[in-house]
Design a protein that fits this description.
The complex is a heterodimer of chains A (about 500) and B (about 375). Chain A has about 500 residues and is an alpha/beta fold. Chain A has 18 helices and 20 strands. In chain A, the strands form four sheets. Chain A has a six-stranded mixed beta sheet with strand order 6-7-8-3-9-10, sandwiched between helices. In chain A, β1 and β2 form a beta hairpin. Chain A is globular. Chain B has a domain of about 220 residues. In chain B, strands 1-2 form a two-stranded antiparallel sheet. In chain B, α3 crosses α8, α3 runs antiparallel to α10 and α11 crosses α12. Chain B is globular, with a radius of gyration of 24 Å. Chain B starts with 9 loop residues before the first strand and ends in a 7-residue tail after the last strand. The relative contact order of chain B is 0.19. Classes of the chains: A alpha/beta (about 500), B mainly alpha (about 375).
């Protein structure tokens, strides 16, 4: 093979006492899609950030097309033809696609010429965007397309995509993969970071694996399989099946009727939503992000006022209790053991600057009659969670924001299930988590289900939703487009229901 | 493609958490560096021997037994005000109304002394004074807290505005109570009867504020670190969403904390009027409500560290005053030196969190 597009030699980068990358050597070839795999905190994003000029390596060398370079700023990365599409888009909402793409470029501003060039790029690789559309009018997948076109416009030959499919529907992901294949055929070098094994298998030519900041090895995708790759990532063998135990004696636990919620701006986020969640069952909630999942869970948890409707909690002897209009503390005082793992872990479920023990205390600090907090039991709970869930942390006294995403999530889930809930709400419980952590979380959720907890599981990976849920409720634009039996449906049906197509054909179902 | 193969000269790297002796070592170096820079500037601009100037600095703060006592007394008042602001700051409620809260506390104390001085037995008078001073400060903290809790108004503005209101009210009463008429000053209150003058501890007129400050420091440390309230303050400050998520009533917590903050400022007002000055003026607080903001921040909201930061500020203040009179330099020169020292002390925090890695010029391979 010709010279590698990128060659990394002995790259090391530390943040404080954390070694994010240590002695990583890696090659990225032209005309190849490389999947970069690794658990959370294994240093994938850090490594790629050094390629795109965001971080500067402490040690090591980078060669682009055989020539040693020093990438000290993102501008230099662009000049070298390296472009990265981040997990969080960096676009200006009130500008059009074209304006965003040419933003920050030197030279004369000529939007018409730019729009022409953008059109050319789109036609060449099969992108589908309108250059004059404003960003705030775009769907998530369109925004992502703008990000990709932006780096191509700047002449990138080496593209890095950091978890591009996390926010896409299956159909949109497939579209993205087609574009990626076109770029590959054009001789570009592509790197994709993803946690979804089936995507790795379908899109990549080669996989490179990192573990705890170290480079473990690379394999041709066609010569390997999901379980071998996972074993390399984790460093031991892992089973990749999600169990789905049969629900035992399910009884209605949460009954939602005609729930309508408006956000602060007065936009309807939930429209007339009705469903029942049963004890000992997992009710999966599918939908494109921002379709009311967050509002639904927050309404049940007592954090979101509703315009109309009711949310009833039904206890073991069949007594009903209205939850709507009560705050989390009142709900707790009713004797409703409700656990909530929110989407925004450090923004809502945990306090980033506090240590593990203090975060455990969030749920228990009111206990005891003295004006002082009791710190022993949260401390031992923290130790127990660290032990049981294999949380990687320097100590119990470490602020949780210093931990990697997966470990943060384990702390949150561990705390939430520690007080024996009867209802467990989880929003994107495995978002950003690596395979091993994800399976730990699935396992924990299943254990709660077996204990008779009513689980409401908002997810984004349809494969997982189909495997773990008993029933799946599909939301589309704040409405229920259907509730289906998870064992009797497939990904395509749900994907279509998410975009309402199903509803238009069959309709009348929930009216 | 440009030749981008140039290594940057240095880059900034985040440090591990340093052991305490290293971080204090860095701070010590910063102070030494500050003194050197101050010395150079002193010699260049005034031609004086910097060592003599430093000597005068120390003389100003510790030159005599009386000076030492005054230094510690001033430090106590500043420390109490800083501690008062701290719970609000921990909650990310930027209470810069310490000035006004101290003033209304002082005003309430003076009002009691003047109007009730000959009507109540002294013990009862002091109790009434204390309650009024704390209550007045609490109300001054409560008003902006209600605005914040109910309508989410910007507390920086509202607490600041409350300062001006307090100043104007005090100015008004200065004229009501002026002695003698036309002097625009209140004069020493109850000079003959000493009614309402706070008692001297162990025969020292300086000791009371120092003891009060010590008690407040210890209590605040325990309150913030070990109480349920302290925990709630920390959670609300870090993330209001998380506070709501666990069912904390954020409005109630904001109001409660600001009442405490204001009441403690009122306590400082009580000590200023009842214990130290025995009179009231609009400037009785000499801007310490604002200085305390810096003291609290420098200490990173840790009550124990605040002992050192308040000492530092008072030491600089008194030393600076001394050199401006001793050497015939004006106050501005003293301010320049204080500014340089603070710049180094605040600036060194950067080097405690980060280090600068210089690239090796020689390249291997």
């Amino acid at each position: 093979m010709a010279e590698a597009a990128v060659k990394l030699v002995n790259i090391t980068k530390s943040f404080g006492q954390v070694k994010a990358n240590s002695n990583v050597s890696l090659e990225i070839n032209k005309g190849e899609i490389l999947a970069l795999l690794g658990e959370n905190g294994s240093g994938k994003t850090t490594l790629m950030n050094m390629l795109s000029g965001i971080y500067y390596p402490d040690e090591g060398q980078i060669f682009i097309n055989g020539k040693e370079v020093s990438i000290s700023s993102p501008r230099i990365a662009y000049e070298l033809g390296i472009g990265m599409v981040h997990q969080h888009f960096k676009l200006v909402d009130v500008l059009t696609a074209t304006e965003n793409i040419i933003l920050g470029l030197e030279g004369k501003l000529n939007k018409k010429e730019a729009a022409g060039k953008i059109k050319e790029i789109c036609d060449k690789y099969g992108f589908d965007i309108n250059p004059d559309q404003k960003i705030y009018d775009m769907s998530v997948s369109q925004k992502q397309t703008v990000e990709i076109v932006k780096v191509l416009y700047r002449g990138a030959n080496i593209l890095i995509l950091d978890e591009p499919t996390a926010v896409l529907t299956p159909q949109e992901s497939e579209k993205l993969f087609n574009v990626m294949r076109n770029m590959k055929a054009d001789g570009k070098a592509l790197v994709i970071i993803t946690h979804k094994m089936h995507e790795v298998e379908s899109i990549s030519d080669r996989v490179a694996i990192l573990r705890k900041g170290e480079y473990i090895g690379s394999l041709m995708t066609k010569d390997t399989n999901a379980s071998e790759m996972t074993d390399m990532m984790v460093g031991r063998s892992v089973s990749l099946n999600i169990a789905r135990p049969k629900p035992v004696n399910p009884k209605p636990r949460i009954k939602v009727e005609g729930l309508t919620v408006r956000n602060i701006e007065g936009i309807e986020k939930l429209k007339n939503v009705s469903f029942v969640a049963q004890s000992g069952e997992i009710l999966g909630i599918a939908g494109i992000s921002g379709c009311g999942q967050k509002e639904l869970l927050e309404a049940i948890a007592g954090l979101q006022p509703a315009e109309s409707g009711s949310i009833k909690y039904i206890n073991d002897v069949g007594e009903e209790e209205e939850l709507l209009g009560k705050d989390p503390r009142k709900i707790e005082e009713l004797g409703v053991a409700l656990s909530f793992v929110p989407e925004d872990r450090l923004g809502m479920g945990l306090v980033g600057n506090m240590d593990l023990s203090d975060n455990m205390m969030l749920r228990s600090f009111r206990q005891g009659k003295t004006p002082f907090t009791e710190r022993k039991s949260p401390h031992s709970l923290a130790e127990k969670v660290v032990d049981d869930l294999e949380v990687v942390t320097p100590s119990i006294e470490t602020p949780v924001r210093r931990l990697s995403g997966g470990n943060v999530q384990k702390i949150l889930v561990g705390r939430e299930i520690a007080h024996a809930p009867t209802v467990l709400l989880t929003a994107y419980a495995v978002r950003g988590l690596d395979i091993n952590s994800s399976y730990t979380i699935y396992d924990l959720i299943n254990k709660q289900k077996e204990k008779g907890v009513a689980v409401i599981f908002v997810g984004e990976d349809l494969d997982v939703l189909l495997e773990i849920s008993d029933k799946i409720l599909v939301l589309c634009g704040g409405e229920v487009s259907g509730i289906v039996d998870a064992e009797k449906t497939d990904k395509n049906t749900i994907g279509l229901m998410m975009t309402k197509v199903m509803n238009e054909n069959t309709d009348t179902k929930e009216e | 493609m440009k030749n981008s193969n140039k290594e940057p000269l240095f880059h900034i790297v985040k440090r591990d958490v340093l052991p305490w002796y290293k971080s204090w070592g860095i701070r010590a170096i910063a102070i030494v560096a500050a003194l050197i820079v101050c010395g150079i500037i002193t010699t260049v601009t005034t031609g004086l021997n910097p060592l003599k100037v430093y000597g005068a600095f120390i003389q100003g703060a510790f030159g005599s037994g009386r000076k030492v006592w005054i230094t510690f007394q001033n430090m106590s008042i500043l420390l109490i005000i800083s501690l008062a602001l701290t719970p609000a700051f921990k909650m990310r409620f930027w209470n810069i109304g310490g000035e006004g809260q101290v003033l209304v506390g002082a005003l309430a104390t003076a009002a009691c002394m003047i109007t009730l001085g000959d009507k109540l037995p002294n013990v009862l008078l002091i109790v009434v004074m204390s309650i009024s001073a704390l209550a007045a400060g609490a109300v001054w903290g409560l008003i902006p807290a209600i605005f914040k809790a109910k309508w989410n108004t910007n507390e920086t503005l509202s607490t600041l505005m409350m300062n001006y209101i307090a100043t104007q009210i005090v100015a008004f009463f200065t004229i009501v109570w002026e002695v003698p008429k036309g002097s625009f000053t209140v004069g020493i209150i109850n000079q003959t009867t000493n009614a309402g003058w706070l008692p001297q501890l162990f025969g020292s007129k300086y000791l009371l504020p120092i003891v009060v400050a010590a008690v407040v420091t210890a209590s605040m440390y325990v309150y913030l670190k070990y109480s349920k309230h302290g925990y709630e303050i920390a959670v609300v400050g870090e993330s209001e969403k998380t506070a709501k998520y666990v069912g904390m009533k954020t409005g109630k917590i904001i109001i409660r904390t600001m009442v405490l903050s204001g009441a403690l400022c009122g306590l400082a007002g009580l000590l200023l009027v009842g214990g130290i000055n025995h009179t009231i003026t609009t400037t009785i607080n000499s801007g310490q409500g604002f200085t305390a903001v810096m003291v609290s921040w420098l200490a990173k909201f840790n009550p124990i560290t605040m002992i050192f930061t308040s000492f530092l500020i008072i030491f600089l203040e008194r030393g600076a005053g001394e050199i401006s009179t001793n050497f015939g330099l004006n106050q501005s020169f003293a301010d320049i030196l204080t500014g340089i020292i603070l710049f180094f002390i605040i600036g060194c925090e950067f080097f405690i969190s980060y280090k600068i890695a210089v690239r090796k010029s020689s390249k291997e391979n």
